[in-house]
Amino acid sequence: MRNRRQFITAATTVNLLSIAGCAQNEGVGRQAPDPVDLSGEKTDFQGGMVIGDHGGPNGQIFYEETEPKPRQGAGVEGNSPDNLAWFHTLVYGLFPYHFEMRNSGAQAAGIYVTDYSIVDWELSSDTMIMPAPTSPETFADATELIYVVDSDARGGMGSALLPFSNSNDAARFISEYNGRTINYDEIDRTLISGIRR
Prior knowledge:
With 197 residues, this protein is an alpha+beta fold. It has one domain. It has 4 helices and 9 strands. A 4-stranded antiparallel sheet has the order 3-2-4-6, sandwiched between helices. Strands 8-7-9 form a 3-stranded antiparallel sheet, covered by helices on one side. It has a two-stranded antiparallel ribbon with strand order 1-5. The protein is globular and about 45 Å long. The protein starts with a strand and ends with a helix.
């Protein structure tokens, strides 16, 4: 096992909380609620799988004036704050779900994903699966992050988008595990379909 991050400094944690508290709706400018804890057997809105059990980045989306409905997900109802949907994968869950919600007129008040710049993570050479942390402080505003795509590392369901708040961390990751970086605005249905293939 190779440990890529030895510790999380207090300054980084304070910075993350600042970013999370100021997360904005996609261009509208309203303050978003803070990310929530996704532990406790919460299940994915898109696929019904338990959050944190499968590896790779997790995500959560707060919608304005729209209550998302789970397609699958025993244990979701009654445990979710109003207007919040959560996911155990970005490629197979969060982004496809969000594209559909947006097409139906829903607006995001805040989108949060795992930030691997602030997570203590390891990659095993035999599985190459990134961890799937669930605590609120491991999430950051998805619209502000850099994403590594086409790397050798994987999420719980295969190829993954891996978010970083620090561009140097993303560059170091690519130097060791290959891939390229993209911004949030470059993530669309075509990109997601290509990753899933």
